[in-house]
Specification:
about 170 residues, 7-stranded antiparallel sheet, mainly beta, 18 strands, about 55% strand
């Protein structure tokens, strides 16, 4: 069974996904928040300000499987080579799972808005995907394709996995 709880306060939104096993099973869970590259002026319905920049400090990234584009090898970890900064216009396209993130990732749209993503201890991987119009920073309890490649979490009947996500912001 799964449950979702949430709470909004001034400057923060907390949501928690909890999976409780009714029988012993393997599970994995995560969040998939994506954010506009540019803020939107709601009155004029147009993009405004500067492009959002992601700052985080992973210690590694799962290597891509060259034989199967789009897949990652769970057992090969490479150092994160760029210092964890996704600069606007850098030309890099990410669709990669990062590990060893100990400081909460932040997205800053200049001085207009800073968004911080904070999670609980179950999160081991952060998938970062940056299509042209968005920046997705996705905390996950386990690596991609964990059921097939390893890394899914074993729960006994009655045990639970909780994955909280706090989105906090400042202007």
């Amino acid at each position: 069974a799964a449950s979702l709880t949430g709470n909004a306060t001034g400057g923060a939104l907390t949501i928690t996904l909890t999976i409780t096993a009714e029988v012993e099973q393997l599970v994995t869970a995560g969040w998939h928040p994506c954010f506009r590259r540019f803020l939107l002026d709601a009155t004029e319905r147009r993009e405004t300000g500067v492009e959002g920049v992601l700052a985080f400090a992973p210690t590694g990234v799962l290597a891509r499987d060259v034989a199967m584009p789009g897949l990652h090898l769970v057992d090969v970890v490479q150092p994160a080579v760029d210092g964890g900064i996704a600069a606007p216009g850098s030309g890099a396209t990410w669709d990669d799972p990062f590990m060893g993130v100990t400081t909460p990732p932040q997205i800053a749209w200049g001085d207009d808005l800073v968004l911080t993503l904070t999670t609980g201890p179950a999160v081991t991987h952060w998938m970062v995907y940056d299509p042209d119009d968005a920046l997705c920073v996705e905390p996950q309890a386990g690596p991609p394709d964990a059921f097939h490649r390893g890394g899914a979490i074993y729960l006994k009947a009655g045990e639970s996995l909780s994955v909280p996500l706090v989105l906090s912001w400042s202007t």
